[in-house]
Inverse folding.
């Protein structure tokens, strides 16, 4: 599949682009700075320069699937969370519908769809933005999966996860999030589902094969 990765220069995004490439897909890394192109050129991975705060419709040339893994980051003002995590994601969904994209995977966050009132600021603000973008996707006509990983770590992936509609809070490596996205991409059992994702004891392939 030709997969547009929005947030490709990010920590999950860059891992994902390489995993997709290794798995025989054609990732298109959406980055917003000229100097970020080089790190993908080196591996003959296609890039597109585009910014979620501008018109980025040109990024959707012949795209089969979109993964949204962008984020405003923890060090930006609250207003930027709305601009990127909520509005940027919603625009990416709208553009996908316009361009006739079939598949959309949203990297959301664990508990973005529940217990919102239990979070204090600024986390409540972040979860609210994530929740609104996720809801917009659920109401779209795309074959979506909302993937809700727990706290992300940079340790090496174990290849073993839990992927369910509801799990108690734990963490997950970015490595394993990227691997799960590659596995879910053409897994129809994940269409129309919102799945929480955490480190677990079951190999990723088996977890995905067990989806019903
Ligand atoms: N941190 C956690 O524990 C946690 C837990 C669950 C879910 N998540 C979610 O997981 C996702 C990925 O996390 P991560 O750690 O990989 O994030 P990350 O490393 O911060 O990457 C985010 C990417 O978004 C890009 N971006 C920001 N503004 C943009 C814009 N205007 N146009 C285009 N791209 C833009 C950034 O571009 P630049 O590289 O140019 O800055 C960056 O590459 C995020 O949505 C995050 O909210 C995080």
């Amino acid at each position: 599949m030709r997969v547009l990765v929005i947030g490709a220069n990010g920590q999950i995004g860059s891992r994902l682009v390489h995993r997709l490439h290794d798995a025989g897909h054609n990732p298109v890394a959406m980055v917003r700075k000229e100097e970020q192109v080089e790190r993908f050129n080196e591996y003959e991975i296609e890039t597109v320069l585009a910014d979620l705060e501008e018109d980025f419709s040109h990024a959707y040339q012949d795209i089969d699937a979109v993964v949204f893994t962008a984020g405003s980051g923890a060090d930006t003002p609250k207003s930027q969370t709305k601009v990127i995590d909520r509005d940027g994601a919603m625009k990416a969904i709208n553009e996908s519908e316009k361009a006739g994209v079939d598949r959309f995977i949203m990297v959301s966050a664990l508990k973005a769809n529940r217990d919102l009132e239990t979070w204090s600021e600024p986390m409540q603000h972040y979860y609210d933005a994530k929740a609104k973008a996720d809801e917009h996707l659920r109401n779209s006509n795309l074959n979506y999966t909302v993937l809700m990983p727990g706290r992300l770590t940079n340790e090496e992936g174990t290849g073993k996860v839990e992927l369910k509609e509801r799990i108690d809070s734990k963490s997950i490596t970015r490595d394993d999030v990227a691997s799960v996205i590659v596995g879910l991409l053409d897994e129809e059992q994940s269409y129309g589902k919102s799945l929480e994702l955490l480190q677990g004891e079951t190999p990723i392939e088996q977890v995905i094969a067990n989806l019903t």
